[in-house]
Specification:
By secondary structure, the chain is an alpha/beta fold. The protein is built from 15 helices and 13 strands.
Length: about 425
């Protein structure tokens, strides 16, 4: 029993150090958002081709496209990439862009993908319509709602030097309603968002990333995408590991995404994204799963045995229960403080969504253990299998750059299914 207590003490120390580290990351996130968002943008305006793969019309499609059309940037054009000419989103795009010159907007019909993910298939079709006049390729997801300075902020760091191979933003889930599942999604995503920052940790996120067009081909992204399903994990691998360049995180390019899930759609979505992570970045998946498990096991163990005193035979000092309770409170307190820091950063980042974000407070702070239970369940389920279903298409992933398109599957009316991964 003494040996078990000794071992558990070191487990608790590891969990506490992880909790302190996560708190510091959240603290830096809140500070970084405020500091970097207030810095003026340099007057650098390369020509940008903005590529938006899109399918179907969701509740927020029109507002997101309208936000993209309000960009405060003088030198860009838009390429909307769709699978089929029959897609109803084409009519929405044409209506919203009718006032723009013809050279500013192009709708690219990519056709059905048979050897890669449909999203990448659409993106590659749009890339083929770019040319040497396009200095930068910027990629955006249809569920993201960019601020007016999004393009300018995203491309400006590419001027810092050739050591910057790509830039990226990330998303912050804003609950569409007070349902518990949407609060849980927002909290899980906030923890991922806080990790973006230093070059060594930053992965590209497909909903808000940019590369120089020449680098897109020179680094080998174009080739690496040919049989892939995850656009951003492949970009991250190529830029960081093959080209040996840096990915620069742009805090101002955090975009709001609407979280509108039920539990079934959440687990379908979360398991898919974690399965992609497990295959494309197994160390990231392992870190996320082990961190969640370590936190929960330590928290539950200290709480249960402090309350019930089941692990202590008669005759041991009475302070053992108090000691365990203090261990529990120290771990729990750092997770609560972390939640307040993340919420503070979110309010600074998206002040227009303050009311909706306030609805996540209980899950961000005192309800965080419940969030981690849900998160760990999705992480564990993702281990089993290599098949994913995305927007009505089933894929089997052999590795990050090799995918088999198996068959079309039945799908309900389109709804927002943005990407989430434990980055």
């Amino acid at each position: 029993m003494a040996n078990l207590s000794f071992i558990f003490f070191f487990v608790w120390v590891a969990a506490l150090l992880l909790a302190i580290w996560r708190f510091r990351i959240a603290q830096m996130f809140a500070r970084r958002i405020l500091r970097r968002a207030s810095q003026p943008l340099e007057p650098i305006f390369p020509h940008v081709a903005v590529i938006l793969p899109i399918k179907g019309v969701d509740d927020d499609t029109e507002e997101n496209i309208a936000a993209l059309l309000r960009q405060d940037y003088p030198n860009y054009r838009l390429l909307f990439a769709v699978e089929s000419e029959e897609d109803p989103v084409i009519r929405v795009i044409e209506r919203l862009t009718a006032h723009l010159p013809a050279h500013k907007v192009e709708i690219v019909v990519a056709g059905v993908a048979d050897q890669r993910g449909q999203k990448i298939h659409n993106q590659l079709a749009a890339v083929e319509r770019t040319d040497d006049r396009d200095d930068v390729l910027a990629f955006m997801d249809a569920d993201a709602r960019p601020k007016p300075e999004w393009i300018h902020a995203l491309v400006a760091p590419l001027s810092y030097g050739e050591h910057i191979g790509a830039t990226t933003g990330y998303r912050y889930y804003v609950p569409a309603n007070p349902a518990m599942v949407n609060g849980v999604v927002s909290v899980i995503n906030a923890g991922v968002a806080a990790l973006f920052g230093p070059f060594r940790r930053t992965y590209a996120w497909g909903g808000s990333m940019a590369l120089r067009r020449k680098d897109f081909f020179a680094f080998g992204v174009h080739s690496a995408w040919q049989n892939a399903v995850s656009d951003d994990y492949v970009v991250s691998y190529v830029v960081k590991h093959l080209a040996k360049k840096k990915i620069h995180f742009v805090a101002r390019c955090m975009v709001a995404s609407r979280a509108d899930f039920d539990w079934a759609s959440f687990f379908e979505f979360a398991v898919r994204q974690y399965r992609i992570t497990k295959i494309c970045a197994p160390i990231v998946w392992m870190a996320a799963a082990s961190g969640a498990a370590l936190y929960l096991v330590t928290l539950v163990y200290t709480f249960v045995f402090a309350i019930r005193g089941l692990m202590f035979p008669q005759g041991l000092p009475a302070y053992e229960g108090l000691r365990l309770m203090l261990m529990f409170l120290s771990l729990y307190s750092f997770s609560v403080a972390r939640g307040f820091m993340l919420l503070r950063g979110a309010r600074l980042l998206l002040p227009e969504h303050t009311a909706a974000l306030e609805g996540t407070r209980k899950w961000m702070t005192f309800g965080y253990p419940i969030v981690q239970v849900v998160n760990l369940v999705a992480l564990v389920i993702a281990v089993f299998g290599r098949r994913i279903t995305w927007r009505g298409v089933r894929y089997r992933m052999a590795n990050r750059m090799r995918t088999t398109v198996e068959r079309q599957v039945a799908q309900a009316a389109p709804r927002s299914e943005p990407e989430m991964a434990a980055r």
